[in-house]
Amino acid sequence: xxxxxxxxxxxxxxxxxxxxxxxxxxxxxxxxxxxxxxxxxxxxxxxxxxxxxxxxxxxxxxxxxxxxxxxxxxxxxxxxxxxxxxxxxxxxxxxxxxxxxxxxxxxxxxxxxxxxxxxxxxxxxxxxxxxxxxxxxxxxxxxxxxxxxxxxxxxxxxxxxxxxxxxxxxxxxxxxxxxxxxxxxxxxxxxxxxxxxxxx
Amino acid sequence: xxxxxxxxxxxxxxxxxxxxxxxxxxxxxxxxxxxxxxxxxxxxxxxxxxxxxxxxxxxxxxxxxxxxxxxxxxxxxxxxxxxxxxxxxxxxxxxxxxxxxxxxxxxxxxxxxxxxxxxxxxxxxxxxxxxxxxxxxxxxxxxxxxxxxxxxxxxxxxxxxxxxxxxxxxxxxxxxxxxxxxxxxxxxxxxxxxxxxxxx
Lengths: 200, 200
Hints:
2 copies of one chain form a homodimer. The first copy, chain A, has helices at residues 7-17, 24-37, 39-55, 90-99, 129-135, 149-162, 187-195, and strands spanning 57-58, 65-66, 80-87, 104-108, 140-143, 168-171. By secondary structure, chain A is α/β, with parallel strands linked by helices. In chain A, helix 2 (24-37) crosses helix 3. The mean pLDDT of chain A is 88.
């Protein structure tokens, strides 16, 4: 019979290879690293995983991840509850917060509408969104889904759904990224940068 | 104060980003995946890590990873103990075993000599190697370190050290990989493939 890894090792490699972006070879490399070079790292990682699994949960208001009753942004009394930014995923919140250009609150969809992947609006985190807009007297909803086909479709779908509530719905601007180069910009971005030009 | 992740989540991202090949962004993506899409996967991964950490250890004879007293290869009575293959790391054993071209036993160095990284021969797993060669009447030692500068240097160092024991020391052949293309082969490989040519 061909040589095989001991079952405990095979199990670890299998669990690691199920993570996104890790193939069987990378999982194998990680397992060997954890069991040879950095043995105590595997224990620390296991503890961090178990602690995060037991303590981290979605914020019941916006869907951001938190270890408290509400997330730090929803709990912050200084944030403008009348300005709501809708994002695809939790990691988008940190990106927007880093820009320091937003003082409102968020709503995490947990995905985008993608018929090809079988994801319809019913699979998005939309429960409570309309009630939230009404109760907090939201004046503007910023659609900050990614500038992809699915992100645009989701933004359009939600805009149509939310406008009857009497709220202004806006979309992040498209255009040239800062530090970008016209030579390497794609046609679609350049076309949107042109049509969205501003007077100086 | 700028928005930050809850400490439990920040800890998990930090632990993940310490793994080889994972930067902060990839670690963040993994953490979100484990805490949102696949919550039970994080518990399973944690358990697999803890079980592997407590049960997997290096084989006292060859340095391969095992959950038994000796590794499956050292415990196999059908392997030729007179033929010893020296490899850099545990993962190389599986690669060689998959080739089904070797029936001897292994010795894992756990690294290569690399003065630039401060790794001298004293940091390699060489304890017991000479005793093993003597006691098992090893007739041939195959140096299967990688065909890199460090791998070659390590092979030459060990060959010099082991030859006085009266053992034949050989090196894996260099040449064109199967399915390779002359157009894309590097000069060093082609040069070695030419000088190592065999009569048909």
